[in-house]
Amino acid sequence: MENDEKIKNKKVETYAEDMAKAIDGSEGSFIRKIIEEQERNEKEGLNSSSENRKRIAFVIFSILLIGCAIGALVFLFFFRKEMSTVDIGAQFVPIIYLDGTTFKEVDELTKDQISESILKEVSVTEIKDGGVVGVYLTSSKKIVGLRQFLNLITSSLDKNKIGFVSDNFLIGATNIGNKNLFILLKMRSIADVFDTMRSWENKMFNDLHGFFGVNIDSETSYLLTKDFEDGFIQNKNARILRDNDGKIVMMYIFINDTSFIVTNNEASVREIMLRISSGIIRK
What we know:
The protein has 283 residues and is an alpha+beta fold. The protein has 6 helices and 9 strands; from the N terminus they run ααβαββαββαββββα. The chain has helices at 2-24, 26-79, 111-124, 146-152, 190-208, 266-278, and strands at 100-105, 132-139, 142-143, 170-176, 178-186, 229-233, 236-242, 248-256, 259-263. Strands 1, 2, 3, 4, 5, 6, 7, 8 and 9 form a 9-stranded mixed sheet that branches.
């Protein structure tokens, strides 16, 4: 019995030793290679699975983006007529340098209401001493040009004869002692508009009296038919309408070959002349 037990133990020990030798030997190297190869395949399988998931996620995200883009295009196509638009403020270039700017909406206003609103706006606007402020009329959120302005006040000026007068004009006020209104126009040359302005004299006071604060009543009605006379303002030729006391009620002066001003104040003419001659438009 003891001998049989020894034989069994010897066989077990011999098998274990043989396995250890096999692992340590060339057979062991082969087995390790198989194990390492298996581990490497498992890692590559994991990496491949991760890459596949990324690709699937990218494809799904791309499909969603394309769907959103198509949906936006469909929405714009079917509902664009109902979409509201935002009006952009009209662009303008000041004729002269201004110390301030104000805008006055004149939709559905009469001629007298327009002049009254401008005078009121000037009276409440702060203007520094010697300063000039521009009053821009607007209609439907757009700047009113000269021709539209003449239509609004039902002017008698023949608009077919002012083709060389710029539509960009300026109604403004100076603050030199008092606030005084002026209207400044730009033209190609004096020769192009001189005759037209002379023919307008008969109706100029009737068209513009409200803008200079003159009411038509029994005491002023004679001015409607009174003639303008020649004169000099700041060494410039002027056409002047005076009342019975010799006070200037209205006048127009060709400041230079391309600038024309209507006002009732000589100090305003001087200031506008200085700003035009400086040729500086500050922003």
